[in-house]
Queue: 3 jobs
Job 1
Amino acid sequence: MRSKVQLASAIALAATVLTALFGAQGSGAAATTPIPVAAKSNTPMAYVSTPVVQSLPTDGNAATDNQADDAVTSDHSADADSLAQLVAMQPSEGSVDSQMRCLAGAIYFEARGETLEGQLAVGRVIINRSESGRFPASYCGVVYQPGQFSFVQGSRMPSIREKSDDWREALAIARIAVQESWKSEAQGALYFHAARVSPKWRLTKIAQVDDHIFYR
């Protein structure tokens, strides 16, 4: 009887030792597992990663705006049956920046009194030059380049009668030329001279529009 009690005690003691041993090992494994910070709060635990932010090109929105402007310009061009009608659709008020003033000023002094097509052709030459890589890269740079336009004297443009119909017309033509909302007869021209002179240039003649002959 005594041996049976001793055996039972030995078995109970062994069971107690085994239980304590396995319990300690389990606590150690849990301690080595990182505990997410969220587990310390009452909020649901989630795996959070740092978001990857993709930078858009700096001109991404500007390109969209320009496309929108082009769409508006195209709509105006589609609605106009003539260049005169398109000129009449241009805004008559608003600020004029220095580059647009140089372009419109050149049209005003070089082709004032000519047809709208003649004024547009002059404007396109200035724009073409600024984009060609062979001349200054701005409208003002093209207009004020030494020895190019006779109305420029001492690096200055004469005063403009800004209340006149001629100036409003020149501004409208300048906007149309920049927007390319009406095709010019002198498309692609880089040079022109008055029809009354014959400089014998070795250039490709494109067209004569009013009192000017245009070349590329």
Job 2
Amino acid sequence: MTDLQLNSVSRRGLLGVFAATALVAAPTYTNAFGLLKGAGDIRRIRMYSGRTGESIDTIYWIEGEYIPEVVKEINNFMRDWRTDDVVKMDPRNFDIMAAAHRLMDVNEPYMLLSGYRSPKTNAMLRSHSKGVAKNSLHMKGQAADLRLQSRSVGQMAKAATACASGGVGKYSRSNFVHMDCGPVRSWGG
């Protein structure tokens, strides 16, 4: 092959990679990464909890299927650490979190500040802060409050918003981003 042919193949290959990345980085609301279902898709989530000292780094989706045992592990990890209550989290939220993580191109795991919240915990937090919703999606297992040391709240929110798959709240003063799989909307500053 000539140098010209090698450069042409390389450029074409790079364009293909960029196109594939764009598809992966743009999940739909109904099923994040839906375009790649059955196409060898692997989804991974990496988090740690400063509250419990636990961490999780796992592949939870392979070839168009959630892995039930792994989803249970994630549910346990995202439990209400104050009450130890565990619920079935909505896996669409894992998809949003994973897609945003991939868009930011980081290896650092998310720090999970809040996943599931029992009604008791939500009421307690609400009594101390006006920023806690009465009918929070945290109580339905559909939300997570996350932080990254290597990315700003603005960068995280921009990545989550690019997924166009749920709610994104910026909490700059508290240095975290809320991601949920409810209706598409955004708030905060």
Job 3
Amino acid sequence: MRIYHKAYVYLTCGNRLLVFDEPDTPELGLQVPGGTIDPGESYLIGARREFIEETGLNLDTAFAHFADQDLPLEIMAADGEVQAPLNRPLKGRHLRKLYHARIDTVPQEEWEHFEMSPSNGGPPIRFRLFWLDLHDPRAMDPAKFFAEFGAQLESLRQRIQGARP
């Protein structure tokens, strides 16, 4: 099984989390910015680079490591059903480092951005980024998130307990 090193950023503003979906592949569900680490790149540097590539935001804020995930992934949708036509995520073992970053002010409520260099080498991917309250019903249901991105939300809620936008 091929191993992929990944880093993801859970950016919060108060009790809101930056998430995205892919309008052209809605079956994937909600995701957080991040992706594959380049050879020789640290997880932290990769997390920052991937965050900028996927959001268009270049933030001057600290990224604090808060969790790890070790996931064997097949090509699947948010509901766990195999989706052979999709060329993502990369099939194999995903070793993930998850980072938490905080900002005081939301730069935009919602926007679209294109990932121009997907890991699979395919065409650009359109993302619709927006802020999701961590107590919204979608955030309370990990199944609404793709590939275990929702699994750490309870831990994230505890990290920011008491924080309000």
